[in-house]
Write a structure and sequence with these properties.
The complex is a heterodimer. Chain A is mostly helical. Chain A contains eleven helices and no strands. In chain A, 67% of the residues lie in helices and 0% in strands. Chain B is an alpha/beta fold. Chain B contains ten helices and 14 strands. In chain B, the strands form three sheets. A six-stranded mixed β-sheet of chain B has the order 6-7-8-3-9-10, sandwiched between helices. The two termini of chain B are 35 Å apart. Classes of the chains: A mainly alpha, B alpha/beta. Chains A and B meet through α1 and α5 of A and α2 of B.
Chain lengths: 277, 301
């Protein structure tokens, strides 16, 4: 008589819980996370520090008029006309991209994915877990950037007056955008999983938002409405500015969630169709 | 029921055909020695079994179910090439991560148990990157043993193991199969494999060229007469003149593979003035059988 083998079928919740547990454990135990948190805090301080310096003509470089401009621009400035338009919390998504690339790159370099996918782990769980963990890491970087920005503002002696509601919405908007960005970077790292250097470079390239900045310049020169750019991650991140309102927050949430869903679905499909290791 | 049943498996990497219509049957409870040259398709086949890479054609069934069914992996233990551990984390933390991935209850106790099994409990606090090759292999084996797997897939697990490690490996394989588990193990250390394997599969160019039980191998392995004489070179000349296959082995014995009686060999040499100082009959081992089979396959190619 043959004995029938019984196999455990863990639910999605059980699977994702264990995978998230491992990913968060790894995140908190890798120096990489803390290094990038430190970078996120130091960058705004350094940018503020620049504003206390003088140029060759002996004039003080005036990048900002208000401390909170270190966190976010006054308006939705899709086209960059100076470093001050660009040097704000959106830079977290550049460093975040590099961090995600290194974090996921370690999975492949160490052979961990091989160990993982020989268990009951599903590819969709991997995508979701990495996106959520990296989104959390980037959200933490946003908070560190905020603290660094406040310290930098105090250091440079900037005015701190602001519409508190808009500021909170701008910060929340950028934190919410972390999910979409993290999903994009996870997706890029799935595509270039065998080429670590290309993963880092592509994350950096997309993180700068250079594509949207270029498109914005064309749209502006054609006098077309720029709000369509809010459909993209960089556009919505820029849109979360110091004149934001509740609508901005809703747009950020919808855009971030939609791109996260798209990247997770396509990334899962690619993982399912390709060899893991 | 068979633990693994593979039919007409094919896998290409670009123009290179790594697995070419492979058939394989691994009965439940077997220790299946999977043997083949470098690049013959062993690791590729094992990776397909574990779901790490996709096949281009054919079927793979594990306990009667398609290998793509991830639920089956709740009862699989795998060591492919080297263990997938984070170098900066300790052995213990790496083990705990795998335990979490497997959703093992009482993970700490289980990790302690498997580390003890491979005599690595003393190195649990070491960073993985500071472990030697042999230690890493033991960790890989311990990781594969987590969660009491019913199917163990081990790719070159003996590589880098010292004598004690090999003995532990033998004990582990024997113990786990006593509990009803099935093991598929690929290795180039055939002498070691011969001590534990109950079944064998020999692969060449992505095709299974022979599959047999240990008992069948025993029957297939030819007997030979090994001897030493006062004048070895003349003895070799004389034996070659009468028998069809005479070879000198690494230990300096002359081997006569023809089906003849020992007395006939001794008499032939004695009649020609050669004194035999030592003579015995023996059987070729797995290694020689494998080499013979490979030579034969090369001829047929």
């Amino acid at each position: 008589m043959t004995k029938e083998m019984k196999f455990e079928s863990p639910s999605f919740a059980q699977r994702i819980k264990s995978m998230l547990g491992v990913d968060f454990y790894r995140l908190f135990h890798t120096p990489l996370f803390y290094i990038f948190l430190a970078i996120a805090a130091i960058i705004p301080v350094m940018v503020s520090g620049m504003t206390t310096m003088t140029d060759p003509n002996g004039q003080t470089i005036e990048l900002y008029t208000n401390a909170w401009q270190i966190i976010s621009a006054e308006d939705s400035l899709y086209v960059i006309r100076g470093i001050a338009d660009y040097a704000n919390m959106n830079m977290v998504f550049i460093f975040g991209g590099i961090m995600v690339s290194i974090f996921i790159g370690h999975d492949y370099k160490s052979g961990y994915v091989k160990q993982l996918f020989t268990t009951h782990a599903k590819k969709q769980d991997y995508m979701i877990s990495k996106s959520l963990t990296c989104a959390f890491a980037m959200a933490c970087m946003c908070i560190m950037y905020l603290l660094g920005g406040i310290a930098g503002g105090l250091f440079a002696g900037y005015d701190f007056s602001v519409n508190v509601g808009s500021l909170v919405i701008a910060i929340l908007g950028k934190i919410i955008m972390s999910l979409g960005w993290a999903s994009l970077f996870t997706f890029l790292n799935i595509i270039f999983r065998r080429y670590f250097g290309i993963s880092v470079a592509s994350s950096f390239f997309f993180g700068t938002g250079i594509l949207i900045i270029g498109v914005a310049a064309i749209i502006e020169s054609l006098n077309l409405p720029t709000y369509v750019l809010n459909l993209f991650l960089y556009g919505s991140s820029v849109n979360a500015c110091l004149t934001s309102n509740v609508g901005t927050l809703i747009v950020c949430t919808l855009v971030s969630a939609s791109w996260a869903l798209i990247y997770n679905l396509v990334g899962t499909h690619i993982l399912n169709k390709s060899d893991v290791y | 029921m068979n633990a693994i049943e593979i039919r007409n498996l094919t896998k290409n990497f670009g123009p290179k055909q790594a697995v070419n219509g492979l058939n394989m049957t691994v009965p439940e409870g077997a220790i299946y020695g999977f043997i083949g040259e470098n690049g013959s398709g062993k690791s590729t086949t094992e990776k397909i079994i574990c779901g790490l890479i996709h096949e281009n054609g054919g079927t793979v069934k594990l306990y009667g179910r398609p290998h793509t069914d991830v639920d089956i992996r709740t009862c699989m233990g795998v060591l492919i090439e080297a263990p997938g551990c984070f170098p900066g984390l300790s052995v213990w933390n790496n083990m705990m991560i795998q335990a979490a991935n497997l959703r093992i209850e009482n993970a700490e106790q289980e990790v302690v148990k498997v580390l003890k099994t491979v005599r690595m409990e003393g190195a649990a606090g070491n960073k993985y990157k500071n472990c030697s090759l042999g230690m890493k292999q033991r960790i890989g084996i311990a990781m594969a043993l987590l969660g009491n797997p019913k199917l163990l897939v081990l790719d070159e697990p003996i590589n880098g193991l010292d004598a004690d490690g090999m003995r532990i490996m033998r004990e582990v394989l024997t113990d786990i199969t006593k509990l009803g588990a099935t093991v598929i193990i690929s290795s180039h250390v055939l002498g070691e494999l011969e001590k534990t394997a109950t079944h064998y599969g020999i692969i060449k160019g992505g095709k299974m060229i022979a599959e047999m039980t240990a008992a069948e191998l025993e029957v297939s392995c030819r007997t030979f007469i090994a001897l030493q004489a006062r004048d070895m070179s003349r003895a070799k000349f004389l034996l070659n003149s009468k028998f069809s296959r005479v070879e000198e082995d690494e230990a300096g014995y002359l081997r006569v593979y023809d089906e003849v009686k020992t007395e006939a060999v001794v008499k032939h040499l004695y009649d020609n003035g050669i004194v035999v100082t030592e003579i015995k009959t023996d059987k070729i081992g797995l290694e020689e059988y494998y080499i013979d089979l490979m030579k034969e396959a090369k001829k047929n190619d």
